Amino acid sequence: MSLATLINHPEATLVDVRESWEFSMGHVEGSINIPLGQVFARIDEFRNMSKPLVLFCVSGNRSGMAEAFLKAQGVADVHNGGAWQDVAYYRSKKVA
Question: Which of 32, 56, 69, 73 makes an SS bond possible with 81, Cβ 3.0 to 4.6 Å?
Fold first, then answer.
């Protein structure tokens, strides 16, 4: 499944792992903000989220770290969406 398809999946949870001040300056409509530093303490919350999970940040670096951690903890169907602007584009255009 392509990234664009994952982002627009009706059950997808979009998680922005940037800091809250970054999120407040612009974010993907419908996304939630869980900064990378909080991901480790909120593992059960991630396990209970609707899947697929699409994580993103400024460049894909922090979301890649979060993806690797969540997968190592057994959270399934987690994907690195890369840059938040790309996720916003795919979400707004419903690009499949």
Answer: 56
